[in-house]
Amino acid sequence: AQSVTQPDIHITVSEGASLELRCNYSYGATPYLFWYVQSPGQGLQLLLKYFSGDTLVQGIKGFEAEFKRSQSSFNLRKPSVHWSDAAEYFCAVNTGGFKTIFGAGTRLFVKA
Amino acid sequence: EAGVAQSPRYKIIEKRQSVAFWCNPISGHATLYWYQQILGQGPKLLIQFQNNGVVDDSQLPKDRFSAERLKGVDSTLKIQPAKLEDSAVYLCASSSRQGGQGNNSPLHFGNGTRLTVT
Description:
The structure holds 2 protein chains of 2 kinds. Chain A is mostly beta strands. Chain A has strands at 3-5, 10-14, 19-21, 24-26, 32-38, 44-50, 56-58, 64-68, 73-78, 87-94, 100-102, 106-111. Chain A is globular and about 40 Å long. Chain A starts with a strand and ends with a strand. Chain B has strands spanning 5-7, 10-13, 19-24, 31-37, 44-50, 53-56, 65-68, 75-79, 88-95, 108-109, 113-117. Helix content of chain B is 0%, strand content 47%. The N and C termini of chain B lie far apart (37 Å). Chain A binds chain B through residues 4, 32, 34, 36, 41-46, 49, 51, 90, 92, 94, 96-105, and chain B through 4, 31, 33, 35, 40-45, 48, 50, 55-56, 91, 93, 97, 102-104, 106-112.
């Protein structure tokens, strides 16, 4: 069965430091890949998506993600974190059917 | 464009009571989803509609949960009777995905309804 793993339940980074959130998926082919962000009390907002082509994709708010087929990974990165980036981040995959599966999420804390 | 609207934002009920949630998707979006998000977990799909037909309800606890999407627009999700473990945020999402086309349309989420069952 398809699955999405986000190994880090929470991560704390200092403001201005770089960030990498990990995501691994289990699927026999290349799925459609997404990163969403959820602020407290809000719904999920799409940060970026990967379907095909260039394996480094750019998203909103200065985020980027890199698809690595050999590692079945789609890690999210940001060069310099801002305090407003504190939120929960979800990796999601769609394997060509109708269902989008979400990981358990990584909560990001930003310290001044 | 107007986003996905959900109501109410919060609901507190006692176990064995019933509750209903409402969702209005983005205009023109054919596909509508209800997700359950338990604290500390990612969203779990409960049911998916394509226009007013059900595409996937394999994870919907049908003995207590029901959902409908009349006229292919608004949708309601009902729980009757509620259990303590139903405490969660219920998220509605929509996408412009059409049947038979690619599955790369992102989901647009509402702000959710936080349900507390006591």
